Amino acid sequence: MNRISLLSLLLLVSLTGCIKESDFNFSKSRGIEIDGTYGTALFNDEFTALEMLKRYDSLNQIFINDEGYISYIAGQNSSSLIGNDYIVLTDQTFSNSMSISPSVITAFNSASIGTSVFDSSTFDWVMNLNPYEIDSIIYKEGTLNLQLSSTLTIPVSISFMFESLLQPNGNSFSNNFTIPSASSASSNTDISGYKADLTLNGSNTNRLRVKMLVRLDKQSVSDNILPGQQLNYDLNFQNQKFKRIFGYFGNEPLSIPTKNLEIGLFELASGQGNIVAEDPRLNLYFDNTYGMKVQIQTLSPFMAKKQDASLIPITGVTLPFSIERPQNIYDSKQSKLTLKSPQVNVKQLIESKITEIIFGAGAKINPDGITKNFALDTSRVTMTSEIELPFYGSFKNFGFEDTSDFTPPKDAEIIEYAEIKLIVENTLPIGLNFQIYFLDSSTNQTVDSLFKDFDQTHVIPSANVDANGKVINTVHKTTFFRVNQAMLKKLNERNATKIRIRAEALSFNNGNTPVKVFPDNKIVIKAGVKVKAKGIIKQ
Amino acid sequence: MKKNSIKTVLAMITLAFGVSTSAQELTLHNMEFLGQRHSLNPALNPLTRFYLTFYDLGMGFSNSFAVNDLREFDNNSDSFVWSTDKFLKSMKKNNATKLDQLINFSFGVKVNPKLFIHGSVAEKFQFRMTYPYDLFAFLLQGNLNEENIGKTMNIGGFRVNSTGYLDFSAGASYQLNCNLTIGARFKYLKGFANIYTKEALFNITTNPEYYQLTFENDLDFRTTLPDSNYSVKDLFKSKNNGMGIDLGATYLMLDNKLLLSASVIDLGYINWVEGGKRYYNKSQTKTFVFKGFDESSMSGSEDMFEKLVDTIKTTFDIEEETSPKYRTNLIPKIYLSGSYEIFKGNRVGAMMYGEIANKKLSTAWSVNAQLRLGRILNLQGNVSLINRKLGNIGLGVAANLGPIQWWVVTNNAGFLFFNPLDTRIVHFRTGINIALAYGKDKKNPCSPDYIPPGERNKKETSRKGRKSQIITPVETPPTEVPPANAN
Asked: B397: buried, middle or exposed (CB in 10 Å: 19+, 13-18, 0-12)?
């Protein structure tokens, strides 16, 4: 009995389960139930003000100024003629003839065979260099050409000696000729590196002394000189270029040609936005390597071009402006003329978002009268026009707006919402407003917008500044961009297939308070995406 | 590497499904007719004095969730959905899939009243894979789910430890006294396949700030796999040798009605010295934090995702090393049981099974009732808690048909007879033994059938006169039972 009871118990326990046939019918599945929230970081980077500006600074125009904040500096050079092109040494010619003196003729005709008789002549070669009064020249290049012709019926030896024309080795230059009876001769001497002293060792200018020595050799009884026989000669300096030149070079006009200074700073804000610049400057730098004083008498042209290509004259500049001379050869002398508001209309130029400054100048040398100068072959006056725009001011309405096609996702019921989380940490005194509008494709009417609240559109708020315009805090803002099913449904129903993206940059306090942008002002942007999937994925 | 890994796992699973049985022999352990008990506790002797396995085969699988753990039914619409929520609720922090294969040839001889020697040659295959809740939570709930955000989720905590080996065992049980019997089996092992996961870390943490993802990876696993066309002969040539031991004891008390049994089996190791490969993360930096793309990565000619993939590849660079030498332990198992004889040949009891795999102890519990009908039939029923699921109905039957012993056991008959979609375990094992020499243990002074030597001849003479006498169990113990400490 006990065994049977135990066996029965075992069977009873074993039969406690039951099988439902429907359990095996997997076609009754409605699908896979999903309820998950997924996400990942998307973006993380920080941008300092200097780094951002340098990114667009291919011309190296962004600097940190003496006060530690950022300045935009753009410059352009224009140079006058160089020394050899401005001080032109014209070709010089000296023609003359020498008759053998009667006493020399008598002595020669009566001399025994084998005897030599001498004659000589000294003269000053006065050069026609007006208005220059040249003391000395060190030649870079040039030629000294000597031509001789003789009517004497005997051979003759002639030497020309230029005592104050020194060769590169320091010796005076001389040139010897032997001319057969009644014939001619010539020579060309490269005078590169020669030094000519044109003062006759005194206070003269433009003069070179030449000594001419004639030797007559009695070779036969029939060698005789007849009265009237002479020697003719031509001396020429040709193609003279100096390496250095000393003297007085007149007060002829010296022009600085027209150049354009391009300003790319406002390219990103073409046509929009208001700027108030607090301390812009236009600097004119002059670099003088002529050894003479230069006076800027006119700035012409001197104007700015706006984005619409119209021109604004730059006014209020006080002229003339004198440029001093360097005291020593090879030195240069710099002068600076700073043009600021309110005397000069520089603020107006910046606030007009100009794209170019067009400049040139007219000058004259030696405005104080005759003074001794020097010049090198490379001497010049260089004018640099420089716009300096410290990042100190305010701006607003720098906007960006674009409309493009958009296809709202369909068949995405499983996605309950998608959301981007944007975290901003900003120490820039600049903010950004952002909004996306969804438009009806046929009427362009706004169907919906990404942000329902105006406050939400301040995606990047500006940091606060003190009375000096310096940032005093870091501002944090977290923004969620969420698109949910209801919104997608609405967009699909209303046929919203266009989006208009609008962004506006502005400085602190809606662009009404001047701010300074320091190089370490930065913005940190972090973004992540979250997607909530909920529903049943049908099989 | 990845393809090889997948192939490896598939190969192991395929191999394991060929002929397999769950290691948790909650039913077999208490089948008194069967010599296979020696493999679970070397001190736990069968009633027969000789047995030889003719065949011993079965199938077993256990998992942490059942098919119906994935489904939510709606009676109104007579339909269901695959419910991620229900599925996750059915899981714990760590979950496991287990497969065991055994082809066993065993024998045993009781050489004298106290000593039973036994041995076996077996091909064993053990597959253990733990997989983390976090992986499914990550996939199904998402990394930004309230429970998961900010939490380090070990989504790669797959630990696969699987070993195939030949087990040559020889052991004995010895009755120390009328209460205590001890047993041991020594094993010589030849390994032919192994996957050993030393480290499997793939953590992902999502920072709530803006969902930055921190990945940590540390991977180190080794494999030793046979060629696809290996033969049995090759198994014996393996140089991957090892040693092992099983230890067990039984204790009788309360007038021999209460039997306590304890065993620790598969204590051992295999040295893998040939045919191995190691895959590991050689990168010094095993952590990668994805904070989002920066501006520089979004510009330039190279795609930013390609850059990201390159960075991850560098961080988690998996290196392959050939011919590593390493040692793996067998999966130790513990059986603790107690049964009470409520009347002759009929017992009720309880049992605890435990195994330590992948550094985790997993247990199963059962209560059982056994019914023995003479020498012919041995029945058992049990109810067990396996894989955190209660109500697994285990059944066992052993029938002696002359010297032929047929038997079948299962830990979960529900899979066969009730709803397999609710089951987390599949277990079935059957075999045929040649089993001889049942009957009274007249020479053992501890046995209730004991007959002192002086009287044994009289009884023998008397028995020869009654050829067809049916031996029935003696209800009362003999009066001359020696004291418990007598040996």
From this structure: middle
CB contact under 8 A, A17 and B414: yes
The CATH number of A70-84+251-390, from 1.10.3470, 2.10.240, 2.60.120, 3.40.50, is 2.60.120
Cβ of A6 within 8 Å of Cβ of B371? The answer is yes
Question: Which residues in chain B touch residue A56, judged by CB atoms under 8 angstroms apart?
Answer: none
Whether the predicted interface score ipTM is above 0.85? no
* Tokens at B81, concatenated: 């959905």
Q: How far apart are CA A536 and CA A36, in angstroms?
A: 12
For residue A237, pLDDT beyond 60: yes
Instruction: Determine whether the interchain pair A2/B343 forms a contact, defined as Cβ–Cβ distance below 8 Å.
Output: yes
Which residues on adjacent β-strands are paired with residue A98? A231
Q: Could you tell me if B383 lies within 8 Å of chain A, comparing CB atoms? A: yes
Tell me whether the CATH fold assigned to A70-84+251-390 matches the one assigned to A88-248.
Answer: yes
Residue B104 pLDDT greater than 80, yes or no: yes
Residue boundaries of the structural domains of chain A? 32-54+396-537, 70-84+251-390, 88-248
Is residue B100 very low, low, confident or very high in pLDDT (cuts 50, 70, 90)? confident
Alpha carbon of B53: minimum distance to chain A alpha carbons (Å): 28
Strand partners, B462: none
What would the pLDDT profile of B358-383 be if each residue is shown by its tens digit? 677 888 899 999 998 888 899 999 99
**What is the tens place of the pLDDT at every residue in B260-310?**
999 999 999 999 998 889 998 887 777 889 998 888 777 765 677 777 777
Chain B residue numbers touching A45 (CB-CB < 8 A): 292, 294-295
Question: Which pLDDT score, from 0 to 100, does residue B418 have?
Answer: 67
B179 touches chain A (CB under 8 A): no
Least confident of A273-287, B68-82, B213-227, B458-472: B458-472
Chain A interface includes B78 (CB < 8 A): yes
The amino acid present at B63, given as its one-letter code, is: N
Positive/negative CA dihedral, B271, B273, B277, B278: positive
Query: Under an 8 A CB cutoff, do B79 and A528 touch?
Result: no
Lowest average pLDDT, out of A270-279, B200-209, B294-303, B467-476, goes to B467-476
Residues contacting residue B296 through CB under 8 Å, at least 6 positions apart: none
Token pair listed for B60: 């077993």
CA distances B269 to A328, A425, B229, Å, are 97, 59, 26
On chain A, the residues whose CB falls within 8 A of the CB of B394 are none
Q: Which residues from chain A sit within 8 angstroms of residue B80, using beta carbons?
A: 28-30
Q: Is B30 in contact with B339 (CB distance < 8 Å)?
A: yes
Domains, chain B, ordered by start: 2-282+317-438 (2.40.160)
Cβ-contact A128, A88 below 8 angstroms = no
On whether any CB of chain A is under 8 Å from the CB of B356, the answer is no
Both tokens of A243, joined, read: 């390496």
So what's the pLDDT on residue A86?
94
Q: Do B79 and A28 touch (CB under 8 A)?
A: yes
Residue A4 burial (CB count, 10 A) = 9
Distances (CA, A) of A352 to A309, A314, A315, A348, A355: 11, 13, 15, 6, 9
- What the block records as the tokens of B402 is 């002359």
The verdict on a CB contact (< 8 Å) between B140 and A36 is yes
Distance CA B433, CA B435 (A): 6
Instruction: For domain A88-248, say whether CATH 3.30.230 is its number.
Output: no
SS3 content of chain B, % helix, strand, coil (to 5): 15, 50, 30
Percent of chain A with pLDDT over 90: 63
**Mean pLDDT (chain A, rounded):** 89
Regarding pTM above 0.90, the answer is no
| pLDDT value at residue A8 | 43
Give chain B positions within 8 Å (CB) of A39. Answer: 142-144, 206, 211
Nearest to A14 among B82, B291, B381 (CB): B381
